Amino acid sequence: MSIKIYLPTEYFYLKRTCNLYGQLHISEDNVVVYYVMDVDSYKPDSDSNKMRFLGAILCNDSFADSSYCRSHDMILCFTYTKDSPNISLIFTGITPERLKPIKLILYDQEIVRSLVVKGQNTLNHWTREGHDECDFYMLAHLVQPKPDVCSNSAGLSFYGSRPLSLLANMPMQLLENIIGNTFVNSIITHTIIINQLYSLLKVLEGSPIGLKLNIHLNNFFLDCFKYHIELWSTFLDLIEPIVRQIFLAIGAFGCFGLTYQIALLADLISIVGLHAHCFYVYTKVLNNVELKGLSVLWQVVRGNRYNILRNRTEAHNYMNRQLYLATIFFSAILFLFPTTLVYYIVFATLKALTSATLAILDFIRRKLLNFPIDIFLKYFRKGFNEIDSLRVLDIPLQKQLVFTHRNSEILIFVYKLQV
C-alpha cells in the first residue's frame, strides 16, 4: 500500500499557517491519493461537493504530536521551519501497516486546469486507463474553478478546435478549386494520358535510341496497343460524365480531411492509368514466354535435356528434324526478343512510375493520419494540454524528506508535473 499526495507547487514552499482543502481517494489497489487544491480561500458554500477539509500547514514550533491532528479532524498535516525551504509531511490520517515510499507530486494549477475534462466521459475513462492516468484526470476534474466545468470545457474545446475546423475545411475548398482547374479536368477527360501514350508509341516506332527493332513485330505491337488505347478512350468517354459527377459528389465530403482527398486522387490515377497497367501485363507475359522458350531451346540446340528423375541436365541424342526445328525457333525467338524486351522495359518503367506515385500518395496519407496536428496546435496556443504531453520530473532537494511511521523512516520522493 502506498500514498500519493498532489500538492500545488506554491504550497510546497509556503511559510505560514493555513488550512488545506481538497479530496481523498482510495483506489482499488489500495493506493491512498490526497488531492490538495486550496488553502484558506476555500468557501464551503460554493464547491462543497468537490472539496473537503484535509488538514493544515503548521509551524513546527506550534505542533505537538499526532493527537493534535486527530483532535482537529485532520487527515493530512505539514509543518514548516524557518531554516527549511520547503514544508515536511508529519501526519496522515490513513496510514497502512506496511507503507511504501510516499510520492509527493507538485503541480501547477493553470496547467492542470487546461486539461479538458468532459464530464461523464472522463469518469468512465478512469476505469479503463491506468491508475496514474486516472489520478491526472481526477486532478484535472477537481481543480476546475466551477462546478459547470463540463459546459466550460465544451466551450473551450470548441474554441480550441476552431483552427482544426479551418484546416478540415481547407481540403474542401482546395478540391473545389482543383476540380475547376484545366489540368485536373484534362486528367478526368483522359486527354493528357491518351496523348502521352500516343507520343510514347510514336517514339517506339522505328528505331528508338538507335535500337534496331523487328519491323513486323513492332508494327503488330503498335497496332494492338493503339487499338487498346482507342478502346479504352471510348470507354472513358462513356463513363466520363458519371465519374465527374461521382467525384464532385464525393468531394462534398471534404470535411473528412486532406487524407480523404489524397485517397480520391490515388483512385483517379488508378482508373485513368488502367490501360497502361494492361500493357505492362501483356509485355511481361510475352517477355517471360520468350525467356522460357529461349532457355528450353538453348538446351535442345546444345544437345542436352533436363532429367526430371535425376534432377540434372544430361546429354541426349535428338533426331535431325528436332534439331532443325529447334534451331529455327531459337533463331526466330532470339531475333524477336529485343523488340519484346524494349516494350517490356518501357511499360515496366511506366508501371513503376505509376506505382511509385501511388505509394508516395499512400505514404503522405498515412503520415498525415498519424501526424498529431491537433497536439501541435494546442501546444502552440499554450491553452490546452493532453494527458500524454504531461511529464513527471524528479525534483532534487537539499535534504531528503522522510516520514516517521511506527518508529521507522519512510522516504518521500518529490516530483513535479510539467508539459
User: Helix coverage percent of residues?
Assistant: 40-55%
Q: Give the distance, in angstroms, between the N- and C-terminal Cα atoms.
A: 29 Å
- Give the radius of gyration: 39 Å
Domain module count = 2
**What is the number of beta strands?**
12
Low-confidence spans: 117-131, 147-160, 180-184
Shape: elongated
Summarize model confidence as the mean pLDDT.
Answer: 76
| Main sheet overview | 10 strands, mixed
**N-to-C SSE series?**
EHEEHEHEEEHHHHHHHHHHEEHHEEE
Strand content: 15-25%
Q: Which class do the helix and strand fractions yield?
A: alpha/beta
Please work out how many helical segments DSSP would assign. Answer: 15
Explain what this protein looks like in three dimensions.
The protein has 419 residues and is α/β, with parallel strands linked by helices. The protein has 2 domains: 2-160 and 385-418, no CATH class; 164-375, no CATH class. Helix content is 55%, strand content 18%. Strand 4 (52-59), helix 3 (66-71) and strand 5 (76-80) form a beta-alpha-beta unit. The protein starts with a strand and ends with a strand.
